[in-house]
Design brief:
Elements (H helix, E strand, L loop, with lengths): L7 E15 L10 E12 L2 E10 L8 E14 L4 E13 L2 E5 L8 E5 L2 E17 L3 E18 L6 E5 L9 E5 L7 E4 L2 E4 L5 E6 L5 E5 L8 E4 L5 E11 L2 E11 L2 E4 H6 L32 E3 L2 E11 L12 E14 L23 E2 L8 E9 L1
Parallel strand pairs: 19-23
Antiparallel strand pairs: 1-4, 2-3, 4-5, 5-8, 6-7, 8-9, 9-17, 10-11, 11-12, 12-16, 13-14, 14-15, 17-18, 18-21, 19-20, 21-22, 22-24
Length: 388
Amino acid sequence: FMDNVDFISDLRLRGGFGIVGNQEIPNYLSLAILEPNSDFRAILGDEIQTGFALRQLANPDLRWEEKQEFTIGLDYGFIDERIVGSIEFYRNDTEDLLLQITVPQPAPVATFVDNVGSVRNTGLDLALDYYAIEKADMNLQLGLVFNTNVNEILDLGGQDQIFTGSVSGRGQSGQQALLLTPGAPIPEFNGPELLRVNDAGDQVFNDYDADGNLIGETTEPDAGDRQIIGDPRPDFSYGFRAQFDYKQFGISAFIRGEQGRELFNNTALVFGNKSALPNTNVIASALDTPDAINEEARFSSRWIEDASFIRLDNITLEYRPDIARYAPFVRNTRVFLSVDNVFTITPYDGFDPEVNTNAQIGLIPATGIDYTNYPVARTFTLGVNLGF
């Protein structure tokens, strides 16, 4: 019925459904594990012996996480394949999540690992390539990729919330930055909401009652004042690529970015505070903050920053000399100069908006935390490719 639609050269509708397992289960997770425990000591003969106690409960029924994925897509080509690409919608449900469950006390250990909970991911992927110029001695190809993803925690094995993402630094023991809640994305930043620093140099936060109602301000926030203060996952990500060839010369570039992601600048929390002086070095901006010299560092919305970015990931210049004319045994030659991580545009104050510190607690993943990470290196590569 589309025989007379000349500008469409290809149009295909496809769909798929599959179930896969995640086998990335840490070793010995299903077994009971004993370890030496200094609380269990006894004198046997003339020597002090250290006893062993359970560190991990056995769970012989432990199994892989299971992901059910459904996709439907459209592949297309227009104007004799000058424009080609695809659009794909997907939804996957991950079940039997590996989570640490609290063990009713008294018991030898506080938690054990079980298959509980589920998460749903829904998203859209788009790819587009445009062959703008196709001539004997000149070619120009442009490309676009786009992705958006929304995830939701469906179940946490009956738990109302789980905290993860350890906050590092002086005075931050037992502090977590991320929260998992059924019905919400996985994960979200959770902490006090900073309003301002007052004239006395004290940090002032929103104050909430036990029902979550805003009742005023406080300089000493407690657990009841914690609110959702950010999302480490981007609203969408994108990329642009271009390849231009003229006779024996070529240039290509790839630009990539993310929009709407946020990052917890744990480095600034620790080293952007004057109270660390004189025992610890601080970053220069700490000297300009209005905080009092004795105002302690507190995790809050103050340290959650916009980490959206656009990055020139790679640019490559190349020259393809016709060496085969003089050396018939050489099929082709390519001389190139390539630069990776050329520049990044971002409002984030840290070194790199894409870094991530492994701050997970137990098996609960953590993302969006930057603590004393090195930035991605800028790499220059000069090379020659020979084909025989």
